[in-house]
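Review form for a predicted model. The reviewer records the input and the model, then writes brief findings.
Reviewer: anonymous (R2)
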Amino acid sequence: MECYDLSHKSIELKSITKRFGNFTANENISLAVHKGEVHALLGENGAGKSTLMNILYGLYPYDEGEIYIHSKQVSFKSPLDAISHGVGMVHQHFMLISPFTVAENIVLGAELTIKKSSFLDYKVINDEINKLSKAYGMGINATDKIKDIGVALQQRVEILKVLYRNSDVIIFDEPTAVLTPQEIESFQNIVRLLAKEGKSIIFITHKLKEIKACADFCTIIRSGKHIKTVNVSDTSEIELASLMVGRSVSFKTEKIASNPKESALKIENLVVENSMGVKVVDNLSLEVRKGEIVGIAGVSGNGQKELVEAIYGLNRVKSGKILLEGEDITNIGVAKTIEKNIAFIPEDRHHQGLVLPFTTAYNIVLKEIDSPKYSNKLGFINSEKIISDAIDIISNFGVQPPDPNKPCSELSGGNQQKVILGREISNSPIVLIAFQPTRGLDVGSIEYIHKNIIAQRDSQKAILLISLELDEIFNLADKVAVISKGYINKVMDAHQTNENEVGFLMAGGKA
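Model under review:
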C-alpha cells in the first residue's frame, strides 16, 4: 500500500505495562503508527492485543509507560478523552442498539458535541451520514434500522461512527471475525481507502492472509510482550505464524486417507421454514458416513444455520427425514438428540456453547449435569465428581489456565473453544457437528482443533463440518458439499475439486 508518512507519527506507545492483580497483561510494550499507515497487531488469543488497544482507547488505565498523539503526550481517563483526541475504535462485538436507526446509533453519546441548539436536526445529520457513506462506498442509508441490516453493514455503521466523529486514528478489534470471504474483501477495500485518505489504521487480528493483503507493518505480541515489528511485504505468512506462537506451525493438517464405513447420518429431502414460512432449507439430501468428514461450503445465510439446528433438534423440520444409524430422529428435540450421542460445536461459542459466568468445570458437564453421574434423585450435585472429570478434560485438551473453578468468561477464545471441544467429544459421539469450529481463533488454536477433528474421523466418528473458510474445508474435508439457497448443489470428493469450482457453485452456478 505504502500510503504512510514515516515523518509523522500519529500515535506512539512507549513502554506500556498493564497488570490485573498478579497477572501482567502487557509488559513494557512500545508501538508507533504513522499517518496513512495500516498497522496489524498480531498475537494468539489472550496475548494482550485487545488490552493494549483498550488502553489506547481509554477503556483501561495503564500502570507504566507513556502515550503520545501527534507527538504530544496524553493521558486518557475514558473513551471520550480518546475520541476528543481523534482516536476511534470499532469493537469485535458491535456496540449498537437494534431498534435505533443508523443515524441514531452514530450520534449516540456524541450529542453534546454535535448539536447546535436544544434539538438534534436529523435531516442535516442524515444527509451528512449519507454523504460519508457514499464517499467510502459503504452502501448504508442513515434511516435504516440496525435490526434490519446484516452483520457486514453493522460493522460499516461502526466505521461511520468513528468517521463522523472525525477520528484520524481508527482501531479495529478482530474486524473480520464475523464476515464472509466476500465481505472481508469489501472491508479491506475500505481500509485501503481510509489509509489513502491519511487515516492511521490499527487492526487486531490473527488472520495472516489479511495482514498480507492490507497491512504495511505488523507488531507481534506473545504472552503480553513485544516480540517484533516487521515490514509485512518482507515477511512470509510462515514467519509471522512462527513469531506469533514461538514455534513452527503447520498450515496443512496431516491426515491419512479416509476409510468410511456405514452410514451414520442421513438427511432425506429436508425442508425447514423460517418464522415467516419461507423455505430456508429446500429439499436437501446429504449423507455422512462413519470415518469421514463432509464439509459444507457456502456463502453465509444459505441455510447452513437452519440445517444444523434441525439436525440437533433446535429447529422444527417441515418435511423430510433425519436418520441416525437408520433410526428416524426427526423433530425429537435437543434433549433426546443429546441422548442419541450427537455432539455439537456451535457457531457462536458465547451464546450457544457456554454459560460464560459459570466455571470451566460446570461448562464441561453442562449437558450432563442432571444425569445420575453428577446428581442424585433429590437434585443434589456431586461437586467432587464434576471437578474430577473436568480436571481430566482440562488436562487432556490443554485448557489454560488449568483451573476448573475459573469462570469461562475469563478464558481466551481459543481456550473457550477447547472447553467446548473437550465436552463434546469426550463421550465418543456417533456424529460430531462442527459449525465454524475455529472462528476467531489464532493459528496455534486452529492447528490444535483441526488435529482433534481429524483424530475423531480416524476413530470412525462421522463429522459434519460447516465452515465459511474454504481453506478449512479443503484442509479437513474428505467430501465437499456445496450449499446454495438451502439446497445441496453438488457433493464432490475434496481431492477432485478446487476453490474455483466450489466458489462458482457457492454463487449459484449450475453443477
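Findings: The CA atoms of residues 359 and 406 lie 5 Å apart.
Further findings: The longest strand covers residues 5-20.
Recommendation: see findings above.
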